[in-house]
Design goal:
heterodimer, A: 587 residues, alpha+beta, seven-stranded antiparallel beta sheet, five-stranded antiparallel beta sheet, 13 helices, 20 strands, globular, B: 682 residues, Nucleotidyltransferase, domain 5, Rossmann fold, Dna Ligase, domain 1, nine-stranded mixed beta sheet, six-stranded mixed beta sheet, 35 strands
């Protein structure tokens, strides 16, 4: 059984086996990283990705689960590394670290580690892990530096394809520089250990696989898997009517130039099984740090349309063309600020999907909240030890109504997958805060034949002095839109109470110094409605009122359903009259 | 004369095993499971195999009643009582979407609607101090509202009640008093661990299944009584141990995985009798294959799981035997997908229509059909020859559905189906061993389930596992396992502190309280003092991490506050599990766990010797692709004597299972009747 079992071309059985095993390697990397990581951005938010990429930059496999806007974006890191160091510039036991924006195009907290995988002296692929470090120095800590930093130097420590391990030995000088230039080095270097452990584990697994099937057969099989992935996508696109489709949306601003919207204009072209997503109409590079170098918006939309359940590899996007020019805010030139690189992406995905609504009326849902979450961030010092702490939780929001059912409530965005909120009991155990309320936000779901899902209201009191960082992107002027007569969901908002008896004041995103006993209120958006709310059956509206998802007023004003407050029954006659009148006035 | 009976309700069959310890004999009965009324199936089974129960001392039962109630959503109308401001905690959940690219994902569906969720005015802090006292007026108001709603069950889960359950206890007492006959559960009665959503879900599940499980237990006790049963009744729990009906009535949710764990508990027992402390239990049935790990003779137990799957299931945070399951079983269907790739499972032909070869109308080829075509299964000896299998139809199906599309021979296509199924099952075995930091070369594979022995040696070879064990009665091993189960209870308490700052006398007081509770509970179940076994574990992590590792400790180092030995044990565990550790870094204590168990007196599992191995026939078996078929001898398992050796390639057959030996494998029968295979190297 030592001979290479496959000598020629297609071997469906070997292919079937390798097809099972490759994604399992990426998932195992993910398991090791997540379970042994030190910061909630990894273990709860799962703000990381694990992948194998071949020396040409082709993606062999990637874990599925956490943050989806990392999809298939590690190839550029490998291509750049091979360009710099040459294919013979790597040795077994090497380990690299990078977060440089000229290549990776994300905020500096996203630190990539990778190792070359050699089998019998031959470079087979690279194992990579990108993970969100809790701190990279710079002006701020936690989720990232925020949208107002002017450039990467404000943002923090830049690592440019640094060889940190050589033949298995760590470079202590470089490690010292990293340690001295970040806050919470124990945490981040613990995460770095977990990242490299995941890479080394992948090296072992790939070695086993290549030994079993032989290098030739392995690489050939991988190419065939790419072809299969591409073919599956093409099959789906083929069924979409050919045409040119448009949609646009915007964020109210880029956090710096407050009166200038961040425009998102997309064009989607379907020709046979080819699909083009044209982003060239989107805003150019901005002063606010909403810039990035990423195709993630287009990739996520395409993936969810074509093969959401399939593992990701290089073939998953071969039948997609993304048009985007240098200088676009999503293809920004270094050193444009990128600290808030991903805030616009959920809206970009929604806009692309919405463009296709006329082509796929029975498939495309109304817009979801379009936000990466109501971030609960409070910075202070522990009363007993004086140690700095940062509270972190991400509060979910509403999704759009679907052509056959209501949207889901309180869920993370389209750019986030297996991302979880922080339990209240965990937060109160770790940090001197009190969560007063975490509740569904009544009436936030866009009215529709199929209602948008609800956002949340979270109220948190800080028990020590510190600073609240309220940071949801502003979509007041472009709230999560409805489709086919469905109405928009309610946009996000923040409020603040300076002490227990002080009045609750609406506040914009930003930093608020807070005395002990202050309370921040974070309200996340609801999703848009699908179809006219007047067509929603009265009993469904009644059920929503009984459950408290929709108020009596909204039932009447938006749905045209009159409900008796005391008996909680539908007044059929009044409802019929009101609905007729509404249809009349709409017409 | 003493009999022990185990009754296992599975998805398809209800299995009954009777052990007569005086005669040293097993008997066995099987009848179709009756999902509408499970007790009907039980009665049929009893009629077949144990008409009278007056000589039965212990009756051990595993049932799907709890899990069915959840999956079918046929549980009690349940109200939920929570802390002010927390009404939506249960509906909001963790808001994650594990299927990241699916824009049509579904959230878990709460078992309690929002209108039956009520807020009580009160607030505890995370350290257990009262921030806002329990307001009697609000409690009264809520109690009347619950009464007016006419529910059958009430779950009470207040914020931070794990730290101080005083309010929760009072709420539960008041509601119990006011609502006679309603099933009431407070979270602190079943789980004192932090994380409010998971605890709420667990508490709701307990309340939701409570009334139906109680009725079921009433029915069961009545029908056993009617048959003269005067012995002790035990119910299987998800943690692999047994409990009395009295405890099952308070913690019915512990019965959730009552059935499947029997086989794993039994594997551990087989390990004890053979002196094999480290095992991988491998259970392959019709629709799935399951793998789980046994180390130091103990099944590995995890802290919880999601009923209905991680993506949108209900979290249940009670100990459950750690099982990795893949959708590959004998009935898994092979197909060519839309781009021409060969896939196996997860769709299963089940028992209706079943594999093609059963002749029950199945037209799509399955793993069983492939095994038959390869000669690994016998067409005329399946179920002792009661059920002939149609090889020609299986081959024609594989040719039509698979081989013709790939332009390969039927036999190669059959190899392909089995190889792909194998790779997926091997992933499950890897997941519980290699991925948990264990080297399979130090383990033995215990294979059971109807199809387990068929694939065991091939999987062992793939993962370099040196030994395969085929236990007695592999096809009804889960029931056999119940015969051998121990009493067991798990208790957890969140105690959150940096290791260096732990006040060990306080921890010791908590541990002693938990140890006492465990002892008392076992005594109440009739366990002898000498049989009681207590284990302490600390859930530890490095400061800043979230996930903990349960690190076993003894009481003396705990009492002495020997941080260094605790640290060393944790560091070693962390390194094993994740491949790295940080010996000097700060460590946090999160939970204290106590497991109390007691051996029941039970039969030694042992089969009578046969008259000696004889070759009962030969058949042609295809072992490897691109190699000629080999004519191999067929041996009857029952005829084996201690000391007989069978060298592969060979086939060993028994009533409901077949063991395939490959070239280089050598099988012998143990003293007690298990088959031990030394797996040949490559």
């Amino acid at each position: 059984m030592t001979e290479d079992p496959v000598v020629l071309g297609v071997d469906p059985i070997t292919r079937g086996v390798i097809r099972n095993v490759l994604p399992a390697i990426a998932d195992e990397m993910s398991y090791v990283l997540q379970r042994s990581s030190y910061n909630m951005m990894i273990y709860e938010v799962r703000d990381y990705c694990c992948a194998l990429v071949d020396p040409d930059g082709a993606l062999l496999c990637q874990n599925v689960g956490g943050v989806s806007h990392f999809v298939a974006d590690l190839g550029v890191v490998v291509k750049d590394a091979v360009f710099r160091y040459g294919t013979d510039g790597f040795a077994p036991g090497d380990g690299f670290i990078t977060n440089h924006q000229a290549v990776a195009g994300q905020h500096l907290n996203n630190v990539v580690t990778y190792t070359p995988v050699f089998v019998d002296g031959r470079l087979v692929c690279f194992a990579l892990v990108r993970a969100h470090w809790i701190d990279v120095g710079g002006m701020s800590t936690g989720f990232g530096a925020g949208a107002s930093v002017a450039d990467p130097w404000f943002e923090g420590l830049q690592l440019n394809q640094v060889r940190l391990y050589e033949s298995g030995l760590v470079d202590d000088k470089v490690l010292g520089i990293i340690r001295d230039n970040i806050r919470f080095p124990e945490s981040s270097l613990g995460d770095m250990r977990a990242q490299f452990a995941a890479c080394r584990l992948a090296e072992e697994r790939v070695t086993e696989l290549v030994h079993r099937y032989g290098f030739e057969s392995f690489t050939r099989t991988v190419r065939e898997l790419f072809d299969h992935s591409e073919a599956r996508c093409r099959r789906v696109v083929e069924a979409i009517p050919d045409g040119e489709y448009f949609a646009e949306a915007f964020l109210d601003n880029d956090f710096v130039e407050l009166d200038r919207p961040l425009e998102i204009k997309v064009r989607v072209v379907v020709r046979g099984s080819d699909l083009t997503i044209d982003l060239t109409g989107c805003s150019s590079e901005r002063k606010g740090a909403v810039n990035s170098r990423t195709l993630a918006g287009a990739y996520i939309a395409y993936k969810s349309l074509t093969t959401p359940e399939e593992p990701v590899n290089e073939g998953s996007f071969r039948a997609l063309t993304v048009e985007i020019q240098e200088g676009n805010f999503m293809m920004a030139r270094y050193p444009a600020p990128m600290a808030a690189w991903s805030v616009a992406l959920p809206t970009v995905v929604d806009t692309i999907l919405t463009a296709l609504a006329p082509a796929l009326p029975e498939t495309i849902p109304a817009a979801h909240s379009g936000t990466l979450g109501g971030a609960v961030i409070f910075v202070g010092r522990q009363p007993e030890t004086g140690a700095r702490f940062v509270t972190q939780s991400i509060e979910g929001s509403g999704w759009g109504g679907r052509p056959w059912e209501d949207g889901e409530s309180s869920s993370v965005s389209v750019c986030q997958g297996d991302v979880r909120n922080a339990p209240i009991e965990t937060m109160e155990l770790k940090w001197p805060i009190l969560v007063r309320r975490r509740a569904l936000r009544c009436d936030s779901g866009g009215p529709g034949r199929y209602r948008g899902g609800l956002g949340l209201i979270t109220e948190v009191t800080n028990l020590v002095e510190g600073t609240w960082k309220l940071s949801m992107p502003s979509r007041d002027k472009c709230p999560p839109w409805g489709l086919w007569g469905g109405e928009a969901g309610t946009a996000s908002s923040h409020a603040f109470r300076a002490s227990e008896h002080a009045p609750l004041i609406e506040v914009a995103s930003g930093q608020i110094p807070a005395a002990p006993g202050s309370t921040a209120v974070i309200r996340t958006p609801g999703g848009g409605g699908w179809g006219s709310p007047r067509q929603r059956p009265a009993e469904s509206v009644l059920a929503d009122v009984v459950e408290g998802y929709v108020s009596l007023e909204s039932a009447r004003d938006h749905y045209g359903v009159v409900i008796d407050e005391l008996t909680l029954t539908v007044d059929e006659d009044a409802t019929e009259a009101l609905r007729k009148e509404k249809v009349g006035s709409d017409g | 004369m003493a009999l022990t009976v185990a009754l296992d309700i599975g998805g398809t069959f209800t299995d009954l095993v009777v052990w007569d310890s005086e005669a040293g004999r097993f008997s066995h009965g099987k009848s179709a499971t009756t999902p509408q009324r499970l007790t009907d199936g039980i009665v049929q089974c009893l009629l077949k195999a144990a008409p009278s129960l007056d000589k039965v001392e212990d009756f051990v039962h595993g049932s799907t009643i709890a899990i069915n109630t959840v999956l079918e959503r046929t549980g009690a109308s349940t109200a939920l009582l929570v802390t002010k401001g927390m009404r939506d905690i249960y509906a909001i959940g963790r808001q994650n979407r594990p299927d990241a690219y699916d824009v049509f994902f579904r959230r878990p569906r709460p078992l309690v609607p929002r209108r039956l969720t009520f807020e009580v005015d009160e607030r505890m802090s995370a350290t257990g101090s009262v921030i806002e006292p329990l307001d009697d007026a609000s409690l009264e108001r809520v109690t009347s509202a619950v009464a007016a709603a006419g529910v059958e069950a009430v779950a009470v889960c207040l914020l931070n009640s794990y730290a101080n359950p005083a309010h929760e206890i009072r709420v539960a007492a008041v509601v119990r008093e006011a609502l006679q006959g309603v099933f009431v559960t407070a979270s602190s009665e079943i789980l004192r661990e932090y994380r409010e959503y998971e605890r709420t879900s667990t508490t709701v599940l307990n309340a939701y299944v409570g009334p139906r499980v109680s009725t079921y237990l009433d029915d069961l006790e009545r029908l056993l009584d009617e048959r003269g049963f005067g012995g002790r009744l035990f119910l299987m729990q998800s943690n692999g141990g047994a409990m009395t009906p009295r405890i099952a009535r308070t913690v019915p949710v512990a019965m959730m995985e009552s059935g499947p764990v029997g086989g794993i508990a039994a594997a551990a027992e087989v390990g004890k009798s053979l002196g094999l402390s480290n095992l991988i239990a491998f259970d392959m049935g019709g629709t799935t294959a399951k793998a789980s790990l046994v180390t130091g003779f103990q099944p590995s137990v995890s802290d919880g799981y999601y009923i209905g799957g991680y993506a949108n299931g209900q979290p249940l945070t009670l100990p459950v035997v750690d099982v990795v399951e893949v959708g590959t079983g004998g009935g898994s269907i092979a197909k060519i997908d839309d781009v021409g790739a060969l896939c196996v499972g997860p769709t299963s032909a089940g028992s209706d229509p079943g594999p093609i070869c059963y002749g029950w109308g199945g037209t799509r080829p399955t793993v069983t059909d492939a095994n038959l075509v390869l000669g690994r299964l016998s067409p005329d000896r399946f179920l002792g020859g009661e059920m002939p299998l149609d090889v020609d139809a299986a081959a024609a199906g594989i040719e039509k559905e698979i081989a013709s599309h790939l332009s390969i021979s039927t036999v190669d296509a059959a190899h392909g189906i089995v190889d792909i199924a194998m790779s997926s099952m091997a992933l499950a075995v890897r997941a519980v061993s290699i991925e948990r930091g264990y080297d399979p070369r130090e383990f033995a594979l215990v294979a059971f389930g109807g199809a387990g022995p068929l694939h065991a040696c091939a999987i062992a070879r793939e993962l370099h596992i040196p030994t395969v064990v085929i236990p007695l009665f592999p096809a009804h091993f889960s029931a056999v396992g119940m015969l051998a189960s121990n009493l067991r209870h798990d208790d957890v308490r969140t105690v959150y502190r940096e290791l260096e700052q732990v006040a060990w006398h306080e921890v010791l007081a908590i541990v002693d309280e938990m140890l006492d509770a465990g002892r008392r509970r076992l005594r109440g179940e009739g366990a002898a003092e000498a049989a009681v076994h207590l284990e302490i574990g600390l859930d530890l992590r490095y400061l800043g991490q979230e996930f903990t590792l349960t690190t076993p400790v003894e009481r003396p180092p705990l009492a002495a506050g020997e941080v260094s030995s605790i640290r060393a044990a944790f560091t070693e565990l962390h390194h094993r599990r994740y491949g790295h550790s940080a010996p000097t870094e700060a460590i946090e204590l999160v939970n204290v766990r106590v497991t109390s168990s007691a051996c029941r007196e039970r039969p030694p599992l042992r089969a009578a010797e046969g008259s000696g191995a004889q070759v009962r026939g030969c058949r042609h078996v295809a072992f490897e692709r691109a190699r000629a078929v080999v004519e191999v001898p067929i041996i009857e398992r029952d005829e084996l004597r201690v000391g007989d050796e069978v060298k592969g390639p060979a086939i060993v057959e028994e009533y409901a299972s077949t063991t395939v030996l490959w070239r280089g494998d050598a099988l012998r029968r143990s003293e007690t009747g298990e088959l031990l295979v030394a797996v040949g190297g490559e």
